[in-house]
Design brief:
mainly alpha, single chain, globular, Growth Hormone, Chain: A, 80% helix, 15 helices
Amino acid sequence: MAASLISATGSAMATLALAYSVIEEGGGAGDLGVVLAMNTVPTVVFLLVGGVLADRVSRSRLLFLGNLLAAVAQGALAALVATGHATTASIAACGFVSGTAVAFTVPATQGAVAQIVPAEQLQRANALLRLPTNAVKVLGPAVGGVVVAVSGPAWALAWDALTFAVAAFLLLGLRLDAPVTATSALSDLRAGWAGFWARTWLWTYTVAGTVLVAAWLAGFQLLGPVVAAERYAGARDWGLAQGAFAAGLLAGTVVCLRWRPYRLLVVAVAAGAPLAAPLLVMGWGLSLPWLLLAMLLAGIGLDVAIVAWTTAFQQHVPQGELGRMSAFNSVGERLAIPLGYLLTALAAGTWGNRTVLMACAGLVVASAVLNLCVRDVYRINAVKRVDAVAPDQAVERGNAPRR
C-alpha cells in the first residue's frame, strides 16, 4: 500500500505534465496522439508475456522490476524536457519504455492482491488499496497544474520518476512465492486463451471495455488538454478538472467501503456509463463549473466500476490463471487505444474537437448498454463466505453446476 501511495503522488501529475510537454514543443492533437499511442503500443505487445510470467514467477519481483523500469523512463524524459532537448520522437521513446513497464506490472498486481487476501474480503481490500492513492489524486492534478504553469513540466516528471524509484525500493520487502509450473510458457499461453474464451462474461466485458476505454481516453487525455487550452484557462483549469475527477474517484472508493453489491459485474458495467458526462460537457462547450461537476460524477462511477470489476475478476478466476486472464483482458481494452488516439487526432482535424467529443460520449454509453444485454453478466456475483467456491473455480475442480 505504501508503494502505491508514493507512486500515486507522481502519477497524479504525470499525465498533465506529459500533455503540456508536447504542447510546449509546439505540438497539437496529432503529436499528442502519437505520444500517447507510443505509450500504449508496448503494453499491448508485451502484456501477454507479462501475464504468462505473472503465473510462473514471483509477482512481487515483477512489480519491483516494473516500477524500477518506469523510474528510469520518467527520469530520462524529465532530463530531456528540462534541458530543452525534448522532441515528439524522444518523448514517445520514453513513453515506449514506460508502457513496457506497465505490461509486466498490471498482470502481477491483480494476482498479488488475490494471493494475499481471502476471497470474501477482496472488495474491501481493493477499495482500501485505492483509498490513499485516490486521496493523493485529489490535490495532485491541481498542484501539477500549478507546477506546470509556473515552472514547466520537467519538475512534475522528475517527481514522478523519483516516486517510481521509491516504490520499487519498498516492494523489495514484499515476498510472494512463485507458482510451481510444469508446463512450457507457450502451453500456458494456449491454456490461458482457452480459459479466457470459455468465460463469456470475461471476453464480452473485454470487448465492451475496448470501446469504452478507447473512447474515454481519446476524449479525456487527447482532446481534453487541447480543449482546455482553447476554451478554458489552459493547464490551470485542466488541473482543476482532473482534481474534480480525482475527488470523484475518492468518493467512489468510500462508496465501495460501505456498499457491497451482490451483482458485482452488473454494477461494474453500469457504473462506467457516467464517463460520457465530461465528454458531453466539453462537446457542448459548457462552462468550467459544469465540467467540474461532470468530472466528479465520472470519477465516482469509474472507481465503483473498477472496484466491482476487480473483485468479480479475482473471485471468479482461479489463482493460477489470474495473470494470464488479466493480460488477455488488458490487451483487449488497450488494443484499440493507439488506433483510437490516431483516428481521433485525424477526425478532430476534419470535423472539429467538439464533434469528436460527442461521438466518443456516444460510444461510452453504447458500450455499457450493449454489455448489459449479455445474460452471462448477471451470473458473476459476489462471494460471501470463506468456503464459497466461485463458478469458474468449481469448473476447475470438476464440480461445475449443470446449466
